[in-house]
Amino acid sequence: MAAEHERVWSVVDLLKTTSDFFARKQVDEPRLSAELLLAHLFRENRLWLYLNHERQVTRVELASFRELCRQRLEGRPVQYITGEQFFYGRAFAVDECVLIPRPETELLVEHVSGMLAALKEQHQDEAIRVLDVGTGSGCIAVTLAALLPYIHVAAIDCSSAALEVARGNAERHGVQGRVDFIEADLFDPELGSRFRHSFDLIVSNPPYIPEPEWEGLQKEIRCFEPKEALVTSGGTATYLAICKSAPCMLKSRGAISMEIHADAAPVVSGIMESEGFRGISVFKDYSGHDRVVSGTLES
After folding, report:
1. CB contact burial 238-272 (16+ within 10 A = b; e otherwise)
2. How far apart (Å, rounded) are the C-alpha atoms in residues 74 and 248?
3. Binning pLDDT at 50, 70 and 90, where does residue 125 land?
């Protein structure tokens, strides 16, 4: 691309050339990366690119696009370059302070939504309260609040910077009045005393990658995403901390639902059972991997 200074580019030609260039440089999802970066440049969506495929790219726009591509070649995730990631059909602001929401976590939201809807059927007139542990960008808390207008969510994170991002996402989607963001550490043994109300359900996508796996992760993750949002001792320390605190935070027969490492279902289920949870169920993602584990606290 650098040798083509005088060329007049159309959107479609620039997309093809950039996609091919990214592919040669072994950039993940080269076509999608090119589309998202170019759409971001124009402040439009990807469909717009194809509806305006003959639109000429100005020299100023081309220079800006090259800078975006340079960042992508360095391994910076597209989502951090554009500042946005879609989750469950909604756009969420993201930066390097928060984990990029993954499609797999949508299964957790889908499952918990069903649990909360069933709970509402049983307790029509009662307030339904949810605790989101390790909220990050707020994607789980905000999505649940947007989907279910009868719930109130408390969302905790140990990072004040992450909470600022999450608050912005709650405002963006109009649920700031039903989501409380609280700076708190899930490893705090006094965590249960931080809340005025007990919760019907605890939901969490906690750090669950074992420390030895960190160096084997792709560069995009290791060099740009917050390690503390991904890695935990042995891969299970966060589950143990959450399950130990849960009895102090849940109502009688309260439930818990958490995203898990694909290999961790037996261990996490064992932790839950040892802390008094029953009816433990494991749910697979669309790739056939164990992804969500849920259970109810024994009365």
Report:
1. bbbbbbbbbeebbbeebbbbbbbbeebbebbbebb
2. 46
3. confident
DSSP-assigned beta bridge partners for residue 203: 132, 257
Radius of gyration of the chain from its Cα atoms, rounded to whole angstroms: 21
Classify domain 9-74 at the CATH class level: mainly alpha
Domain ranges within the chain, ordered by starting residue: 9-74, 101-297
82-108 pLDDT, tens per residue?
Answer: 999 999 999 999 999 999 999 999 999
Q: Is 288 left (phi over 0), alpha (psi -120 to 50) or beta?
A: left
CA distance 294 to 299: 16
Alpha helices in the chain (DSSP H): 11-24, 30-42, 46-51, 59-73, 78-82, 103-122, 139-147, 160-172, 219-224, 237-249, 265-274
Q: Which fold has domain 101-297?
A: Rossmann fold (3.40.50)
> Which residues does residue 284 pair with via DSSP β-bridges, in sequence order?
290
Token representation of residue 55 = 């639109």
Rounded distance between C-alpha atoms, residue 162 and residue 180, angstroms: 14
- Do the beta carbons of residue 73 and residue 21 sit within 8 Å? no
Counting Cβ atoms within 10 Å, is residue 168 exposed (0-12), middle (13-18) or buried (19+)? middle
Residue type, 245: S
Query: Can you tell me which residue has the tokens 């969302």?
Result: 155
pTM: 0.92
201-222 per-position pLDDT tens digit: 999 999 999 989 999 998 899 9
* Calpha distance 33→15 (Å, rounded): 10
Q: What tokens does 286 get?
A: 């669309």
* φ, ψ dihedrals at 229, nearest 5°: -90, -5
Residue 194: predicted pLDDT: 84
Q: What is the pLDDT of residue 5?
A: 53
